[in-house]
């Protein structure tokens, strides 16, 4: 598929920095990662098992939380600080 992406060794290292091991993700029918155009924002985001795993990881660590009855994700101040340090 044209929008399938590959996780590089650098990507694996960056994920390991937040204790996320992609080799431990459960198998599934969805691709590991792919680009997806958000229908409302018209911006690309990471979809697939990896995108879900990252979001679940952020929520489990209380770095982000879902706004009830919406698609909105809010980041905590700790989550913002960590993500700004983690992402280039």
Q: What are the SSEs and their pairings?
A:
Layout: H1 9-17, E1 34-37, E2 44-47, H2 48-60, E3 64-66, E4 73-75, H3 77-86
Antiparallel strand pairs: 1-2, 3-4
Shape: globular
- Approximately how much beta-strand content do the residues carry? 15-25%
> What oligomeric state do these chains adopt?
single chain
What's the helix-strand series? Answer: HEEHEEH
Description:
The protein has 88 residues and is of the alpha+beta class. 36% of the residues lie in helices and 16% in strands. The chain contains 3 helices and 4 strands, in the order H-E-E-H-E-E-H. A two-stranded antiparallel sheet has the order 1-2. A two-stranded antiparallel sheet has the order 3-4. Strand 3 (64-66) and strand 4 (73-75) form a beta hairpin. The chain is globular. It starts with 8 loop residues before the first helix and ends with a helix. The mean pLDDT is 88.
